[in-house]
Amino acid sequence: MAGLPATARARRSPAAIAAAAPANSQVGRRAADRSFLALCLGITSLTVVILAVLLITIWNDGHGRLSWDFLTNFASRKPAEAGVKASLWGSIWVCTICALSALPIGVGTAIYLEEFSRRSRLTSFIKLNIANLAGVPSIVYGILGLTAFARLFGMASADDPITLGNPESFFYLQLPFGHGVLAGGLTLMLVVLPIIIVSSQEALRSVPRSLRTGSLALGATQWQTTWNITLPASIPMIMTGAILAMSRAIGEAAPVLVLGVPLFIRSTPTNLMSDFTVLPLQIFNWAGRPQAEFHELAAAAIIVLLAVLLTFNAIAVVLRHRLQRAAG
Amino acid sequence: MNAGPSATMTTPANTTSPNEIHLRKPDFQSAAPAPNGAPDEVAIRADKFDGWYGEFHALKGISLEIPKCRVTAFIGPSGCGKSTFLRWMNRMNDSIVGARASGTLTLDGEDLLSRTRDVVELRRNVGMVFQKPNPFPKSIYDNVAFGPRLHRSFRSSDLDELVENSLRAAALWDEVKDRLKSSALGLSGGQQQRLCIARAIAVGPEVLLMDEPCSALDPRSTASIEQLIRELEAQYTIVIVTHNMQQAARVSDRTAFFFEGSLIECGDTDEIFTNPRNKRTEDYVSGRFG
User: What number is the ipTM of this complex?
Assistant: First the structure.
């Protein structure tokens, strides 16, 4: 058979060739299908079970310590009097500064990369590196924040800082920033910036090209198209990305630790240069103590942190839903 | 080409019912006079125009004239370059990487291709309607008002009047006048396409380019848009790209047949469909290939 040229052999139709080949086992295929489904279900249940065990353990340990006093007391050596007031407010201040600084810079960068830049090696290089930055461990950002913000690259001396304004009021600036809320917020901004840029890029890309061409065909400039058409249409997805980013920021302990914040604080921030602490650090502090009461306090603080996260997410989901409906 | 009154191409609305689809027979009893009686001026002129996408030579030596206030149809099989040529007329190809052109392409005597040309003003003057209706996710009012607001600042009463007149010109006013603030995405396909036409008209263009405007629509919407095109012809120069030869026959005054990037034949619609000079044109319009 092999010696004959191809034209001499009669050509078999695909159906004939298929009929001649041995069939795969039907039973085997169905069994494989079912066991794969079972495997997936098992893995999913495992994940849910782990999460449930975690939440139930935390609730058991901590709910006894939850009270209004817990939220309004400062930290204390006596477990009965300890509370999360300082760390809760510190977290709120720092995350607000982080959001206010990261969102304009992140969304602006995404707009430039997606709408305005021409395809070139340089732009691809930039995009690739930003995506990589999202995976950098947050402690690296902590060191960067320490150098850049807390110490301002050594440009001003920490022993003899340049001050502007009254330390008692809100309008007070000190150079270098030291370990105040501004430095903390800006350091967290570095952590979340790559996430916001990447998710905003995805959001802008999801807007159909036909809308942009329709706008350009009416005589709009690129900026008018972006501002009036593309950006409003991508706000829901940008918000989702911002939520994810802030959820990460609120739980970061390492970068704030590296900044050199004091672990024991009994005041809430009053201006941008104030000392602060954050909830994850307070939890770390209490969990590291030998006494069991402090472990319960740590669990209670974790519940508070999760509650803040859930509230934040819920607000953002509602806002996104509203914006999606308004956009039609 | 001398267009006397006996060869007037405008088909009045009552000779073709929406359900009948047939090639227009030559009608030497002209049913209506020429739209505005003016001699044919040229709106857009192309002279040995070549277009490339990177290395691909998409348009080869196109030379034709688009007369003012008439409907010109571009016909031809898929991939022959008619949409590409249309997009060059309002420089929409600028956003495509690697697109370039050479030769002459002028609008009212002014060069369209020069780099110093204000593309934004050009696009206001030469509007485009796309194959798939693309209303913005805004209200009907904001869709129509979007274009004018880009170029000028209006008092709200003037803008209301502008929106109403544009919607009336697009034969959509009666259907939407009670719900101008509702989302444009809630309209049917045919209504959305008429909204896109109203949007294009609102900025006050001279020329309307239509890239297969009815191909995504049902026959009834198609008929209403063809009716609309015949009404708009009096004020706007219209160029329509279409796959549907019967549509070209129903709607246009002049037809240009493209094939594989070249212009094979261009002339009055009646001549192209009943007595084409080129063999390939005849094969295409009689459906021997396509």
Answer: 0.82
